[in-house]
Amino acid sequence: MKQLSSLLAFILVAQFLSAQIDIVGANYDLGTGTIGVIRWNANTGAILDTVATPAQGVAIGSSVFDAYNGIYYFADFAGLNGIDLDSRTVAAFPGTDISTSAEIDMASGKIFGVRNTDVLDSSGMVISSTMDMVQYHIANNTETVIGTFAGNEGVYLDASCYNSNLGIYYFIGIDSALGQCLYAVPTRDSVFSYTLVPMPSQGRFVQTLEYDNEANILYALMLFVGIPGSEHFLVEQIDPTTGALTLEVDFPQYSSYQIGTCSFHQSTSSIVFVLPDSTGPVVRIYNTISNTLTAGILPIQFINEFECDNSIFAQLKYGVTAIESPTAPTNIMTYPNPAIDVLHLRTDAPIESMYITDAMGRSMPFTANGSQVDVSGLAPGCYLLIAKLGEDQWSRSKFIKQ
C-alpha cells in the first residue's frame, strides 16, 4: 500500500474521495458530422459546457487540456483546434500535427508529442523515417523538433504521460534492439536526451500511461493476455528507472478498454476510463488512494479523447501562470497571506467578478466590499481566488486561511 507523504495529505484523503471530477471530451455528432466539445461531471453526468466546432474528426491521443486557461486542444485532419470553454470560442491552428501522444506540462503550459517523420528523396519518394520529439508552442502556433530517437521502430498509440514536477515526458515505444521500452525525456534540459528501459511483456501490453503528480507515481493500464480466454485489465505501477512492475489492482471482470478514454484526476488521485458494456460504453473511476472502483456517468455515448479538468490542482500546486499562455492575465495580489478574517486585493484593473474555491474545486461562500473580502467564514486551509478583470482576462491567486 502506498504511504501518504504527510499528515496534511492524510487529513485531506476523505475530502479528496468526495471531490467532483469534471472531464472534457470530444463528441462526434452523427447529424452534422462534426465534433462538439463537452465538459461534464463524471460523478453525476451533469453537462457543464458544450461547444460546437467545425472539425470533422479527432486524432487518437492528440488531446490535452490547458489547466490555466481552460482550453481543450485536439487535432483533426487540418491541424490543431483550441476550444476555450470559458468564452465558448474555437480557434483553428492549421498545419500543426501533434497527435497520438500529446501531453501538456501543467507547470509551464508547453505541449509535447512524439511524431513519425518521413524522409524523402529528391523525387518525393519515402526512403526512411524518423521518430521525433516535438514541442508545440501555443503562443505563436509553431512546432519545433527538439530531438530524434535513434533505433525507434514505433510508439504505442496513446501510451504517454507527463511528470509536471520534474518535466519528464514518458511514452512506450519499440526499440530495434531492446523491444518494448519505457522512454523518459527530460524536456526542460537545454540539450535533448532520453533514457529507455526494457519492459518485458510477460503477457502484458500497455494500453495507456498516467502520472500522479501529487504522489509521483507512474501508472499503466495493461491488457493481460497470458492465458487464452482470460484476457482482462490490470493497473500497474511502473518504476521509471528499472521498468519493474508492481500490481496496483486487477480487473478480471473487464476484458477490453476503449482507447482514447483514459485520464488522471490529480486532486483525487483517480484513474478515469471507459469500458464497453452490453448496454454501451460505461465510465469507471478507480481511486488509487482507497483502491476502490466506482461507476461514473457518460452523458453522451460517443465521447472520446477526454481529459480530466485539473485546473484547481495545477493552480494550487504550481502556483504560476503557464508561460505558454497566448495572453498573460493581469496580476492580482492578495494579502495578508495567511489571512484570518479579511483578505485585501490589489490589482491594476477593475474587478468585474470573482469566486473562491477550495482545494477540491468547490465554490466557497464569501462577501466582498470593494478591495476587501470577508473570509472569516472559511475553514482553515488552502484556497484559490479567481477574478475576472475585464476583456476576458482572468487572474488567480492562492491564499491560506488560518
Summarize the structure.
This protein is mainly β. The protein is built from two helices and 32 strands. It is globular.
Share in β-strands: over 45%
Distance between the termini: 32 Å
Overall spatial form: globular
- Pairing-aware structural class of the strands and helices? mainly beta
Low-confidence stretches: 1-18
Strand arrangement within the widest β-sheet reads 3-2-1-24
Helix content class:
under 10%
What are the defining features of this structure?
402 residues; mainly beta; 4-stranded antiparallel sheet; 32 strands; globular; disordered N terminus
Structure description:
The protein has helices spanning 7-18, 311-318; strands spanning 22-28, 35-41, 47-52, 64-66, 71-75, 79-84, 89-94, 103-104, 111-120, 126-137, 142-149, 152-163, 168-175, 179-186, 195-198, 204-212, 217-224, 232-238, 245-251, 262-265, 270-275, 282-287, 292-295, 303-308, 332-335, 342-347, 353-357, 363-364, 367-369, 372-374, 381-388, 394-401. With 402 residues, it is mainly beta. The protein has a four-stranded antiparallel beta sheet, with no helix packed on it. It has a four-stranded antiparallel beta sheet with strand order 4-5-6-7, with no helix packed on it. A hairpin with a 6-residue loop joins strand 25 (332-335) and strand 26 (342-347).
